[in-house]
Amino acid sequence: MFRGNQPTRVDDKGRLKVPAEFKRQLDERYGNQFYITSRDGVVAEIYPLQEWQKIEDKLAQVPSFNSAKKKLLGLVSYYGQMAEMDAQGRLLIPQILREKAKVVGDVVVFGMQNHLEVANHESFKQQMEANPLTAEDEQALAGYGL
Q: Which of 43, 50, 44, 42 is nearest to 25 (CA)?
């Protein structure tokens, strides 16, 4: 399970250097095949291929004419690409996503249980400050025992 955050960089060629702790977990459990995408164009989502396939299996159960499914598939296909981690522990972030989410230079990598998310450090801080966890959010989570 991925948790916490690690600062790192995306180099001029668009390669993310996977932080050591996350790389160790990926090597031990998943190997080097990934699907990198986004559902909002704000953060890059890095799924080990096995985890992404679980999502695809669930999507396959939704009728093909479902408009929400079409929207989601459009987004994750537009921003998405298969990727292979190189021997130095780097992943190439798709160019369209890199530009839209501004994931170049200093970034933060968040552990999101079954995948990693990459965000522009400054943009994420601004978004977090503008949209804090509210009492309503806490109440909604309390229904799940959190």
A: 50
Domains, the chain, ordered by start: 5-142 (3.40.1550.20)
Tell how strand 15-17 and strand 90-92 pair up.
antiparallel
Q: What pLDDT score does 28 carry? A: 93
Q: How far apart are CA 7 and CA 133, in angstroms?
A: 22
Q: Please state whether 17 falls in left (phi above 0), alpha (psi between -120 and 50) or beta.
A: beta
Query: 125 φ, ψ to 5°?
Result: -60, -45
Contact 91, 83 (CB under 8 A): yes
The per-residue pLDDT for range 66-107, each reduced to its tens digit, is 999 999 999 999 999 999 999 999 999 999 999 999 999 999
What crossing angle do the helices spanning 49-60 and 67-79 adopt, rounded to 10°? 160
